Amino acid sequence: MHLVPRLGSGIPLVARTHEMRRLRAAFARAERGEAGAVLLSGDAGVGKTRLLTALGEHVEACGGLVLTGRCIDVREGGLPYLPFAEALAPLGSASDPAVAAAVRARPALGRLLPQGQGFEEPRAAEHPPMTSHDRETMVRPRPEQDLGQLQLFDAVLGVLTEVAESRPVVLLLEDLHWADASTRNLLSFLLSRLRAQRLLVVGSYREEDVHRRHPLRGLLSELVRLATVERVDLHPFGAADARKFVAALADQPMPADVVADIVDRSQGNPFFAEELLATKTECNDLPAGLAEVLLSRLERLSPDARRVVRVLSVANEPVMHAALADVSGLGELELDEALREAVQHHVLVVLSDGSYTFRHALLQEAVYGDLLPGERSRTHAAYAARIKARPQGRGHDAKLAYHSMQSSDLVTALPAFLRAMDEAEKLGAPGSALGHVEQALSIWDAVAPADRPEGFDELRLLHEASYFAGTSGEPERAAAFARSATQALTPETSSDRAAKTWRRLAEALLALEGTLDEATAAIDRAWDLVKDTEPSGTRAWVLASRAGFLRLIDQPEAALESARTAVSDAQAVGAANAEASALVTLGTLADSAGHPAEARDWLRKAQRKAREAGGPNTEIRATYFLALSHDDEGEFAEALEHVTSGVARAEETGLSWSSFGIELRARQLMLRYLIGDWPDESASRAGRGVSSAVAARILGIWSLFVVARGRFDEAAKLVSGLRQHWTADMQIPLSIGDAGIQAAYWRGEHAEAVRRAEDLVGWLERIEPGLLAGIRVATLGVSAAAALAADARVHGDQTAVGAAVAAGERLLAHGRMCSVVGQPRSGTLGPEGRAWLARLEAAASCLSGRGDAAKWAAAAEAFGYGAVYEQAICRWHEAEALLAADASAATALEAAHAVAVRLGAIPLRDAVRDLAHRARVELDGVEPAAPARTVADPLTDRERDVLERVALGRTNRQVGEELYISEKTVSVHLSRVMAKLGASRRAEAVAIAYDRGLLTAPTA
Question: What is the spatial distance between Cα 99 and Cα 158, in angstroms, rounded to a whole number?
Fold first, then answer.
């Protein structure tokens, strides 16, 4: 039984290990004769039943008896003793004679069980589970004064005690918040008399339903004072565990923003999360069933309390007492009582600043969704009127815009949205600014021209929307808004505004894959509009952007001229930010020309000027290329330092998910992978609201960590789920495809790894032939082909050997071609490219059989610039080659093992340990893995290794290849084995070894 079990639904009991451990510990004490009780509290849907079901499975697996009873919500009087009657019902029909006798010996139990049950001879058939109809038609006891209550209580305690003598008993009582007075009395009696029985009682209840005046609250306070009773509070999941829970529920990887929305809306409640996911509502209305469950909580409130709750739902945020008084229209005393009631019933909570809010956000959604249209509009209007009458402060315009919009006061809403947009931009919140400008665009045509704010038109709104979409991680929408802006141009539009519009489209398209031609055409349109004009800020910006595009399409001389002209124009008109942008291009041009020192001077100057000019986008762009300059030279420490500072600056300015904010974050993650500074899962999460393609960019790199850590099931989901985003960004197929090849390789699926490598090579060649990244892909494919050929050799399949070698040679040729025709950013192949080329040649040496140890050593040295994981893999292969040549491999194995252990690279670690074991090399901190011997075992470790492989049908040659010894040495070992065992043939030696227990665990 796992500590975190999977229930029948297949849904894991995520993050409940602590609570489960406490319940199991309580059961373990009961097994020892230390009776006890656990009171399990938690909100509805938090997972109490799931946890108790898991406990029941554990108890039954341990040979215990589980008796389960549930209270039901019956308003008028309830059903006395219902959970005990349901729990004890199986005892009355038990086939165990001792249990049946224990029941018959206590006639008082007849008043709990269905009529006649337990007082007749046991029937052969097992009693079926109790149905809801059984509960409703169960014979009810007479009034308590006629029941002989003490006799009944003693009978329940007695039968549980007697049954527990033969095996431990766990009594599960669910939903005690609905328990009637008789049930509460019996529970109190039972728990107060727990002593040395092998009995555990677990009762669950909803914390939010047990308000201050609830009859169960007093009993709970008494019970927790008993030494045998402990309380376990089941809280909602934290954010990290909630994400794991949603991921476990989903059939495939989900967009980060969808997961984040479900996590936020459910607030860690598993049932709510399941409902939201099952209906895939995302940000739409609540599922009807869930809304009904939530709204049922309000039925017990008074009319005034329900009114206050409805008013609060419209606010969509915490509200102070004074605001509720103004909007609700209730008097002070009535409002106080209504709020007190709502708080006591756990519908509302009071925050530290004295404001009121819903205990759960989904309850607010349910209440708001239940409002009538007129009621909703009037309440929004009341809030808007109150906001307009109050002094302005932070968020004032956003609130005014929201309530005015919802109450159809569009004349007030439109300017408020635009003021809120400006405020959001100043606060570094481009996502919020985008939301405000989109709302403004949605109502623009509905507002009469005379009522529209001055200085704005639809063209400006589209331009702003494109900019904010681009800086908040939605490049596709940024391009869509920019295209709409160009379509809104008219002959009356000034050339200056038109040039800005076309430049915005060019910049937006640059963030998308496959749109370079369209983007270049757009910047050319912008340049045509201003090239014959006097220097201006717009002309300087167009020149700066144009310089960047000319560099991308491999026109360095034209790019240099355009950048220098941009600097001149910008200095003439004081456009410092445009000047900084041009300086960035001058830096990248110097890098491409092979002058890194000059490049870094330009880039640092661009950084300073952009910061002084208040241009954070340009500043982080300069930081990215400065980091890339060091990255190209294999100076990872310096590159990571610049990338980290760039990420921090992007976060500080709200540009984390802008075009270069994304590039910085992606490069930071990749650098951490290379240098062996592997982060936790938090590094894989994209921001709220970013596009699925942007999230895929980060998840693609994260998949490399997942594979390297051996989490292959998770990797498989990522690789398959992200395939749809291959066309969005070239880096996505490179990382995801890489992860897919490596995952197949580590799992021993070498044919699949070769297929994936050839598939990725073919895809890349169709998109952009001769990419330098093809060297890495080809290398992984060649290694897989070499392993596939080795597998075929072991089985003597020469046809398969030839096919594998041919595939490897095709991939080898492709990798060599990429190293020649690929275009390094700095003009020459850098340390990373040279290292992968060395590894490609080393992997190719393995195609014909034993690898070349010298080539693997050279590849390992080539990765010495800082790529520690790749270096460790080369050391592992170097050790294989050394052992095949009958040379010492201890140093290489120890180096690879140390890195694998430090990083938690499980597949590499296990491969190194397996190789070390077969070669009889002891690794630091690893116990020798030799099989245990019996007293009469005559075989040495090496003889046993040989015999185990013979038992698997290996030939002497194959055994020698696997153990790195000669075929002749294998024959010598076999001769000794047969002599020791008295066998005349190989097969006879294997049979004798099995008979004597010497081969109980053969290895493949």
Answer: 12
Digit-coded pLDDT (tens) for 592-640: 988 999 999 999 999 999 999 999 999 999 999 999 999 988 899 999 9
State the fold for domain 17-235: Rossmann fold (3.40.50)
> Are 243 and 77 a contacting pair, CB within 8 Å?
no
List phi, psi (to 5°) of 125. Answer: -75, 145
Q: Express each pLDDT in 469-524 by its tens digit.
A: 999 989 999 999 999 999 999 999 999 999 999 999 999 999 888 889 999 999 99
Q: For 169, phi and psi rounded to 5 degrees?
A: -120, 135
Per-residue b/e over 899-910, b at no fewer than 16 CB within 10 Å? bbbebebbbbbe
pTM score: 0.72
CB neighbourhood size of 185 (10 A): 17
Residue with tokens 């049946």: 100
Confirm whether 17-235 and 941-995 share one CATH topology: no
The hierarchical CATH code for the domain 301-371 is 1.10.10.10
Q: Do 180 and 82 form a contact (C-beta atoms < 8 A)?
A: yes
Tally Cβ neighbours within 10 Å of residue 143.
8
Element (H, E) at 358: strand 356-358
3-state secondary structure 856-922: HHHHHHHHHHCCHHHHHHHHHHHHHHHHHCCCCCHHHHHHHHHHHHHHCCHHHHHHHHHHHHHCCCC
Domain extents in the chain = 17-235, 240-284, 301-371, 712-736+746-918, 941-995
Distant-in-sequence, close-in-space partners of 246: CB < 8 Å, separation ≥ 6: 254, 259, 262, 263, 273, 277
CB 217 within 8 A of CB 205: no
Q: Where are the beta strands (DSSP E) in 561-619?
A: none
Residue 93: phi and psi, rounded to 5, are -115, 20
Q: Which of 144, 172, 171 is nearest to 78 (CA)?
A: 144
| Token output for 641 | 């330092």
SS3 of residue 415 by DSSP: helix
- Greatest extent of the chain over all pairs of C-alpha atoms, in Å: 108
What CATH class is the domain 941-995? mainly alpha
Cβ atoms of 300 and 318 within 8 Å: the answer is no
Cβ-contact 33, 194 below 8 angstroms: no
